[in-house]
Specification:
The complex is a heterodimer. By secondary structure, chain A is an alpha/beta fold. Chain A is built from 29 helices and 34 strands. In chain A, a hairpin with a 2-residue loop joins β23 and β24. In chain A, α5 runs parallel beside α16 and α13 crosses α14. Chain B is an all-alpha fold. Helices cover 65% and strands 0% of the residues of chain B. Chain B is built from 14 helices and no strands. Chain B is globular and about 70 Å long. The chains are: A alpha/beta, B mainly alpha. At the A-B interface, α1 of A face α1, α2, α6 and α8 of B.
Chain lengths: 973, 322
């Protein structure tokens, strides 16, 4: 046989075997530079037992996929289930997952620590004393469910819908709970987003109508990251691996981070700007691209809403594109490299080199901002807006190697029993008058808004969320949570103890990533995938032929999963169906019976995921069996420029094209397997829906913005009171030098460490051992000026409302004149609470009126438990809780909490002890008031008598009429 | 389009999947190997016992064993191979010089080259894979495969023939622009010659004798067993070095003579490869020839002077092998 014949033969065999969904080249092989067990042997995989070393003892495993829950990336995990004991022995990566591709960060495998945590909550608990007193009694699920359901039922029956609130930290699922709230008719979805990503989201939303970026890093020519995104940020693992791929292919990496982060160490250009000056840098780059004519004129002409801008702002209705180019040039001429250099402190020559490098990218410019500068500064939403300006100038949007909007790189399948109704009442605590453009709920202001509006929430769920610890101004949260005139019942749904759960009425144990069902889809490359989180022991037992009807049968103790919980709760709220809610949680196959999770997901996989039934059938599996076996499915790859896709003729019926080129049709929306969502574009005056835009004579899909184009100029911002900010521009941060006293410095508090989770990893011993403290990063020149002589010395950081005491870390890895402290550490439990021991200090809480103190009475350290490792804990320092000392800083436009702080750093005073926190919550109310003065309310600025632009995203969208401003608020602030 | 040789000769696409399949079979056998082996026309995969006997006890499939001055895994040769991975932008795997890893890398470079639309990039990738072939595989793989065939009639016999054919064809595909075949690979350039025990001591000599890049000879456990059997000597279990020392302590002249005969046989094999392996084969042939000469001289001296001869070789197995 010739070599070429041989090649054909091997290729054919490979194609044949892989076509059957099997592995040709075995996993643990060097030829793919990776080692994964072949999927055909996932049912019975043999490895040597590490614990039996040096004896060679074989262990047999069943490998069951699930999805990591420890950040929002939703990477694939493979649980190694011991076939003898039916216990999970370890977690590794799932090679079948399109996003993570078998690779995980440390947080994934550490799931094992979380599920075996000796202090984990195993049973429903109800408080037995005063709220916060630390006395708990075990109750049955039935008792808890009946109590909670009864209260909610009363709220709904008495038209007190806005007294039910669900406050989510880590969603980790794609729409189940928002649909549930819609079914309840409750405008009570509260998220953590305004302390996280709203700033960045708002910037993207007002450009594209979608609120997240999806950079195609692997194919980029130039990558620009604002933040330490590669190594610690959002979608860290799926993005990091693709950034490295891009670098291997020759991409240049530009990182803006005031700290020398791990990401910065990989950069070709590391810029360490003064905090908040990032938009000045991007505008200088934009100015240079415009002046040097390095931008894509055709793209700008076709896709920017420049005509609208010229007409409305410059009064030039029929301006030519060339005239617009002149205006553009003049508008941005002020943003010189010299200006950006003076704002940022980065050398002019470096900025010029960065601009020249960006110009080489063409349409392969991948950019990203998530938290970081976007979350730190007043006007931080302009970071994403000015960054996207660069993509929009180069035409690098939805191109190979460019940046995609999230919605085109994810796939949310349509579920059965989709609720069709919308809440009738507007929740003013979550969507207050002062913040009509706030991208998400004003969650972190809740204590202030509740007090200001004299509001009451009868049932308040915190779900995998810890507002006392995570949010700024945590003592105000304690004040609210312990006030039964404000919170009638607090139900904490959490897998682990946290600072907010101590102030709950019920603590209900929910599963970790291997103990619950969820469906996930996230934008991580130019493709679309779904990931399935599942209780792995349930799947393992089902593989062995057992029937499992309730996930509690396989989870430890009485730990439950949420979907079954919510279905059961809903049935108890509406046991006879008279509220019209239960029907959304009834079986499709057996009407009148409860929907099961098997049926729910089985229906989705069979009916709403294109290609999945066929892929499953090829392996002789049902779609649900396929997902239980592989854990993920790629729906599409290389989605490309959706905005340029022609609208099909079948969708063009009685078409009207308005002056701006927007195309409206009477043709109904074609059936789609996707769940509805996104922006809501108003129909035309005759009721036609918008279907696309006409560009150069062709009708194409366009962008989901009011104009159908990329909104360089935002009519929304212009008309709702912010005309000066309607184009990408520069807002001086609240920590800009001109706003600081001579002895103040900006504090960066937003950065993560790559091996911790916000508030759910204190019980992960492996992660704690790697990172367990959060010193103050301070430059040697600042340390010398302040008389701080050595790393480890105690310092006092004074904020607007109090101070905290921590250790200094003198390092050149931070810009002189700026200090930084990670928010990841400093977990605590009050004295008298049993709670969790690993990674938590015990503290004394002192309250004297509005004056609060927190002092450490016991650090971390070893303790006896069923896990012998807990006696080997060698560290006692678990960090300092700094967020307590931060006042709320709501951005008046985006609603984002602006995290950066203006602080004074001093040597610790006599009597100061490590971990001390002191705060005056009255001062925090004053600061809230100061920031409120900057707002421009709906009641004073709404152009159409509504509370909020209807087109903008909203997790649960009330009825159209609920958007109307009530007459009583006309004179509001 | 992939870059093509300047000569204008018809470009033959490298057999990427065949190379991957051959690479996989150099790994410890798993059930999946059956389909791969069959696709290569082999009766079946080797049994785990057969694999272990060949690759764990006789022939070590690591470039560093064959190209390193120490004749052992790791060391400078492995570091040089790891550096090559890094230069290509890959994170070196835990065993970067394992045969399967090197073949996998070669296949990966071929695949990248085929998918590269920029001609200059494709040419760079093409050069990279020829450098990999010339520098890190060709200097050891052909004697390795030949010796493998001498050891077994099992599935690795036809496997080694196929692999040799494939790699020879790939070498022939390389044009002048791809790699300079008359430049000695760095591993060979850097390798010191075999030490003369009469001047540099027995330890260096024995280390060098077992390092193919120094001696030009690939000595296996099987060779030592055959010598022991032919000369009715005791063979001690252990590493080759330990067994060899013990053989020499029993009959230095006879064992040295037998080793010289084996070296002569292998020198001849190297010379036969000169036509297509060029400077590499000439170098190894020359090294083997020098080994033949040295071993012959040592054998003569040991014969003349008795078991406690002046060469020191015969005493190397006594007193702990100083």
């Amino acid at each position: 046989m010739s070599i070429d014949d041989l090649e054909r033969r091997v290729s054919a065999a490979k194609e044949d075997v892989e076509g059957r969904g099997e592995t040709f080249y075995p996993g643990a092989s060097r030829i793919h530079l990776a080692a994964f067990p072949p999927k055909e042997r996932w049912n019975d995989w043999v490895e040597l037992d590490s614990r039996s070393w040096p004896e060679r003892v074989e262990k047999r495993y069943m490998l069951v996929p699930t999805t990591c829950f420890n950040c929002e990336s939703a990477c694939g995990l493979l649980a190694y289930v011991d076939r003898d004991s039916l216990q999970v022995r370890k977690f590794e990566g799932n090679p079948e997952h399109p996003g993570s591709r078998g690779r995980n960060c440390a947080k994934g495998p550490a799931t094992l620590n979380q599920i075996t945590d000796p202090d984990r909550i195993l049973y429903p608990l109800k408080r037995a004393g005063a709220r916060g007193e630390g006395k708990w009694e075990r109750v049955s699920w039935d008792e808890a469910l009946d109590d909670i359901a009864g209260r909610i039922r009363s709220c709904l029956e008495e038209d007190r819908h806005d007294e039910v609130m669900y406050h989510v930290g880590r969603p980790g699922e794609d729409g189940f709970t928002t649909r549930m709230l819609a079914a309840w008719g409750v405008d009570g979805h509260n998220s953590h987003t305004n302390v996280c990503s709203s700033g960045a989201r708002a910037g993207y939303h007002w450009w594209m109508g979608m609120d997240r970026p999806s950079p195609d890093h692997a194919n980029a020519q130039v990558i620009v990251l604002v933040s330490s995104h590669l190594e610690t940020g959002h979608y860290f693992n799926p993005h990091a691996q693709r950034i490295i791929e891009g670098k291997k292919n020759g991409a240049k990496l530009i990182v803006l981070d005031t700290r020398l982060s791990n990401t910065s160490t990989h950069a070709d250009f590391w810029l360490s700007p003064y905090p908040g000056s990032e938009p000045a840098i991007f505008l200088a780059v934009a100015n240079w691209l415009i002046r040097e004519k390095k931008y894509d004129r055709s793209f700008v002409r076709r896709w920017w809403n420049w005509q609208e801008y010229m007409e409305e702002v410059h009064g030039e209705r029929d301006a030519s594109f060339e005239r617009f180019e002149d205006v553009l040039r003049e508008t941005y001429a002020q943003y010189t490299f010299d200006f950006a250099s003076s704002e940022s402190g980065v050398e002019e020559g470096t900025l010029r080199s960065v601009a020249e490098t960006i110009a080489t990218a063409g349409t392969r410019l991948a950019t990203h901002n998530w938290r970081s500068a976007g979350a730190g500064n007043l006007g931080g939403w302009q970071v994403a807006r000015t960054l996207t300006l660069l993509n929009a100038l180069l035409g690098a949007l939805a191109t190979e190697g460019g940046t995609f909007p999230n919605s085109w790189n994810k796939f949310s399948p349509r579920p059965p029993r989709l609720p069709h109704q919308h809440p009738r009442r507007w929740n003013s605590v979550l969507w207050p008058d002062a913040y009509p453009l706030g991208l998400m709920e004003m969650s972190f202001l809740m204590p202030h808004l509740m007090r200001e509006q004299d509001a009451y929430v009868d049932v308040y769920f915190t779900r995998v969320y810890n507002p006392v610890w995570t949010n700024p101004d945590g003592f105000s949260w304690i004040e609210m949570l312990t006030d039964e005139r404000r919170i009638g019942q607090h139900v904490a749904l959490t897998p682990t103890w946290n600072e907010s759960a101590y102030f709950a009425d019920y603590v209900l144990p929910m599963g970790h990533s291997s103990e619950r069902h969820d469906l996930t889809t996230y934008e991580q490359y130019d493709g679309q995938w779904i990931g399935f989180r599942q209780p792995v022991l349930r799947a393992a037992r089902q593989r062995l032929g057992e029937e499992v009807h309730d996930t509690r049968e396989v989870n430890p103790g009485e730990v439950w999963e949420e979907n079954e919980f919510w279905i059961e709760l809903t049935w108890r709220i509406d046991p006879d169906g008279s509220l019209g809610i239960r029907r959304f949680f009834e079986s499709v196959e057996r009407p009148g019976e409860k929907m099961t999770v098997d049926e729910y997901y089985g229906w989705i996989f069979e009916n709403s995921v294109p290609g999945l039934p066929e892929a499953a059938a090829a392996e002789g599996l049902t779609p649900l069996e396929y997902m239980r076996r592989y854990g993920a499915f790629e729906v599409a790859r290389k989605v490309g420029k959706v905005y340029e896709k022609p609208v099909d003729d079948t969708e063009l019926e009685d078409v009207r094209v308005d002056e701006a080129g927007r195309v409206y049709t009477r043709a109904p929306v074609p059936p789609s397997p996707r769940a509805p969502g996104g922006t809501k574009i108003e129909p035309d005056a005759e009721g036609r829906r918008r279907v696309g835009v006409r560009v150069d004579g062709e009708i194409v899909r366009g962008w989901p913005t009011p104009s159908g184009k990329l909104e360089f100029w935002s009519r929304t911002l212009h008309e709702w009171g912010w005309p000066e900010l309607a184009i990408p521009t520069y807002v001086r941060s609240h920590v800009h030098r001109q706003n600081l006293d001579a002895d103040q410095m900006p504090l960066i508090s937003t950065f993560r460490v790559p091996i911790q989770i916000h508030t759910r990893s204190a019980n992960a011993k492996w992660l704690d051992e790697i990172a367990h403290t959060n010193p103050l990063w301070i430059h040697p020149s600042d340390a010398e000026r302040l008389g701080i002589e050595a790393t480890g010395e105690l310092v006092r950081v004074e904020t607007e409302i109090g101070h905290y005491v921590l250790k200094a870390w003198i390092t050149e890895g931070i810009r002189p004149g700026v200090v930084a402290c990670s928010h990841h550490m400093g977990r605590w439990k009050p004295e008298g609470q049993e709670g969790q021991r690993l990674g938590m200090m015990t503290v004394a809480l002192d309250q004297d009126g509005s004056r609060w103190g927190l002092s450490r009475t016991k650090g971390g350290g070893p303790f006896p438990s069923e896990d012998p490792d807990t006696l080997r804990v060698w560290w006692t320092d678990v960090g300092v809780h700094q967020n307590l000392t931060f006042a709320v800083h709501p951005d008046p436009v985006s609603g984002m909490h602006c995290w950066h702080q203006a602080v004074r750093v001093r040597k610790a005073e006599p009597g100061d002890r490590y971990g001390d926190v002191a705060v005056d919550s009255e001062k925090s109310r004053e600061i809230y008031g100061k920031w409120l003065e900057m707002t421009r309310s709906a009641s004073r600025n709404s152009p159409d008598g509504t509370r909020r632009p209807y087109w903008m995203l909203r997790p649960v969208r009330p009825e159209r009429s609920a958007y109307d401003l009530p007459e009583t608020e006309e004179a509001g602030v | 389009m992939p870059a093509r040789p300047e000569s204008g000769a018809r470009y033959r696409a490298p057999p990427v999947e065949a190379i991957r399949g051959l690479a996989v079979l150099a790994e410890p056998p798993t059930p999946e190997h059956r389909a791969v082996a069959r696709s290569l026309g082999l009766d079946g995969p080797p049994s785990p016992a057969h694999y272990s006997d060949l690759f764990l006890f006789q022939l070590y499939p690591y470039a560093s064993v064959h190209l390193g001055a120490e004749g052992m895994m790791g060391g400078q040769a492995a570091a040089r191979v790891a550096g090559f991975w890094r230069a290509l932008g890959y994170e070196p795997p835990p065993e970067p010089d394992h045969l399967a890893a090197l073949l996998g890398l070669y296949a990966a470079l071929c695949a990248r080259e085929a998918g590269e639309s920029v001609n200059a990039e494709a040419r760079l990738l093409r050069r990279s894979r020829f450098v990999l072939l010339h520098e890190h595989l060709a200097p050891w793989i052909f004697p390795f495969l030949e010796r493998l065939r001498e050891l077994t009639d099992g599935p690795f016999h036809p496997w080694s023939r196929i692999l040799e054919s494939v790699l020879r064809r790939e070498l022939e595909e390389g044009g002048e622009d791809d790699v300079d075949l008359e430049v000695l690979p760095a591993h060979l350039r850097e390798a010191p010659p075999l030490a003369d025990p009469r001047r540099e001591g027995a330890t260096d000599f024995l280390d060098g004798l077992l390092a193919p890049v120094r001696s030009g000879v690939l000595l296996l456990r099987a060779d030592l067993a055959r010598i022991a059997q032919d000369r009715e000597l005791g063979l001690r279990a252990g590493e080759r070095r330990y067994a060899l020392e013990h053989l020499l302590s029993q009959d230095a002249p006879g064992v040295l003579q037998a080793l010289a005969e084996e070296a002569r046989r292998q020198a001849l094999r190297h010379r036969r490869r000169c036509g297509w392996l060029g400077v590499t084969a000439r170098f190894l042939g020359s090294r083997a020839h020098a080994t033949v000469t040295l071993l012959g001289e040592l054998a003569d001296e040991e014969s003349r002077d008795g078991a406690e001869g002046r060469t020191g070789v015969g005493a190397s197995g006594k007193g702990g092998g100083s």
